[in-house]
Amino acid sequence: MELVIDRERYYSKQYVLYELLKQLKYRYLSVRKQDKKNPKKYILSRYYLGYNLDLLKQSLERNDVLNDKTAKLYFDLATWGNEKNSMPLFSFDKNKRKEQKEEFSKGEKWKNYIQDYSLAIDIDNKNLNLAYKDAKKIKEVFDMYKLPYSIKTSAGKGMHFLIDSKWIKTRVKPDNRAELFGKVVQNLAKDENCKNIDFSIYDCRRILKLAYSLSFKNNAEYVALPLDDNQFSNFNEEDHRLDKVMRNVHLFKRGLLERDHNLPEKKLLLNTSKFIKEYK
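The structure assignment produced for this chain is given below.
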């Protein structure tokens, strides 16, 4: 059986693409990569679509993701489109795309399209051991509250926690939830003495690394891999190198490994509301 060890073959596998597209329902795909004209700078390309296989393949191709090792994939923490306004679609044509993006941003018109917003925590430090120590503290709290969360390595300098918006019931308007969640996480960080949380993500247009996407560092590709409890407890950065993941992890229909603590949906919703109420 072929061992996939490079990004071109990895992003060509349908079981990988399906794990990516499942995260892009009502969310845009963003690509950040090195500027070829100025290698010290990075370009962020936003508002690509990937909610079905053909669109995802086209978006990856347009951004040369399969060949450019500097390309990293992200998704919106917000979901777009509601009963009044469907999710805006952006053309691949360069000129039309520019006009559509300008129209979308004019007068903060984008606020009319926000449907929901997920709660994320981005723990980030060049010293991964320090990031991991903070992640352990956050995980203990999330497990104590029995929250429906997933956790993944960022394939960079840290770890990401995510509570999907479907678990969050609040009267706070969607475009104001980023501010609310920022306060929640600030209070959590203060209580747990966490020093490595990136608070800049609490903006309703912010993005987060796409699970199962790749990052090239230390002359190797690394996978932003969702972790189960055993993988988290025995975390080792080198286990998330692409070649090792493809040898040791079964990716087919693996998903985000969201915790449910063997609880019904109603209880998980109540637990999330309690957590937000007590930390806001």
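Interim note for the steering committee: Residues 21 and 52 are 6 Å apart (CA to CA). The first helix runs from residue 7 to 10.
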